[in-house]
Amino acid sequence: MKFHKNVNSSVIHKAGWVVIDPYTIVRDGFVHVDSGLIKDIGRGSCSGHIIDHGPGALLPVLVNAHTHLELCALKDKVLPEKGFRNWVENLINLRNSVGTKNLKTGAINGVKELIESGCGVIGEISTLGLTWKIVSNSSLRGVWFREFLGNVLPEEIACNENKLLIKSIAGHAPHTLSPELLADLKNITRKKNIPFSIHLAESEDEIEFLQTGKGKWAEFLSERGIDFSSWNLPVETPVRYLEDLGVLDENTIAVHLIHTDEKDFEILLRHNVRVCLCLRSNFNLHNMLPDLAGMLKAGIKPCLGTDSLASADSLSIFDEMTFVSKSFPSIPPAEILAMATLNGASSLGFGEMFGSLTPGKRAAFVYVPVNVSSRSGLLHALVNADFKGSCKTILQ
Question: How far apart (Å, rounded) are the C-alpha atoms in residues 231 and 254?
Fold first, then answer.
């Protein structure tokens, strides 16, 4: 996939199909861009400075709402063997051994892979704080989350409300954070009205620890010198625990949610919590998938992430959509594409700028060389990566 940045102020982009959003598609369409914003969408002939991309489709840039670029250097090095606790331990040891320079190089290559695979908006999770400059120097937009663990609130936490790239906070997970620190971190983001991300209900080790205060994860924390004796365990479920702590609201992004039930869905929906799913990572690490069909039935609108290259084969949201389509064949392709565009942009707080090709939004889209004759065929091709040849990511 190629990256193309056009500096001409007023440009008309034509294609065989224009996907305004997953539910609104124009055949033989064009996108009129002026000064970096979408001015108009139309069909048929037009005049001006025209770029005809071909018979394929223009669609909004994809949104990868949860990724860990710091772990790109660990691709194919961490095997999901002997349980989640052992995988985490191996990951930490490998991350420490490869060195900062290699981690940064991997992250730079990860940014390139994201853009070349049609992504323009991200939710980047950084535990070590190494990727802020890398992301901010790129064309990617979205939220950079500095992730925290343990019991102690750091003395200084920098956040910003930059229009195109927000610097915010992520709490790692309820089984790695004290309830006091978790609530404090959330309150910092709440005061600034910016997104807060947290891994939630991902592993069996997490569930055992939260519901009993014992098990493999308890041993892991003790070995690392983390005192959890005051964490008010046990709790009923991770979702209900966060509700009790007051962490759930419309700016909270809950990631993974493999171990959830209908009551959890009701709680998430009641608090307007954003949900991000990383299904390839879930399958590779846990041989399990979240109840996506149940979430959709409940009214939740999930978005998609890839997690890291330590647990997924690529950072491509096209690949993620393909996995979703094959794993849940009853879910309509339009719903899957919405997860990768509209839902992702909205979850990260960028719904007014990205997620659809509508007038007033930023000119950020992807050209995909599909060869189809119907709208249903187009949607099927997009969510199953059923196309060949190069694609272009267009940002103005």
Answer: 20
Cα-based distances in Å from 134 to 14, 80, 191, 370: 32, 28, 27, 32
107 near 319, Cβ under 8 Å? no
Q: Would you state the structure tokens that stand for residue 64, as one six-digit string?
A: 């990868």
Q: For the chain, state the CA radius of gyration.
A: 21
Q: Cα separation of 50 and 42, whole Å?
A: 13
CATH node for 62-347 = 3.20.20.140
| Residue 156 burial (CB count, 10 A) | 4
Average pLDDT (191-205) is 96
Domain residue ranges of the chain, discontinuous segments joined by +: 2-60+357-395, 62-347
Measure Cα distances from 312 to 114, 212, 214, 308, 315 in Å: 13, 30, 29, 6, 7
Secondary structure class of 196 (helix, strand, coil): strand
Q: Which residues fall within 8 angstroms of residue 256, CB to CB, at 6 or more apart? A: 199, 200, 201, 202, 276, 277, 278, 282, 290
Residues 287-320 have pLDDT tens digits of: 999 999 999 999 999 999 999 999 999 999 999 9
φ, ψ for residue 3 (rounded to 5)?
Answer: -105, 135
Q: Whole-model pTM above 0.85?
A: yes
Could you tell me which CATH class the domain 2-60+357-395 is placed in? mainly beta
Residues 6+ apart with CB under 8 A from 191: none
Query: How many helices (DSSP H) and strands (DSSP E) are in the chain?
Result: 14, 16
> Which residue from 8, 69, 17 is spatially nearest to 379, judged by alpha carbons?
17
Give the separation between CA 368 and CA 15, rounded to whole angstroms. 10
Phi, psi of 203 (to 5 degrees): -120, 160
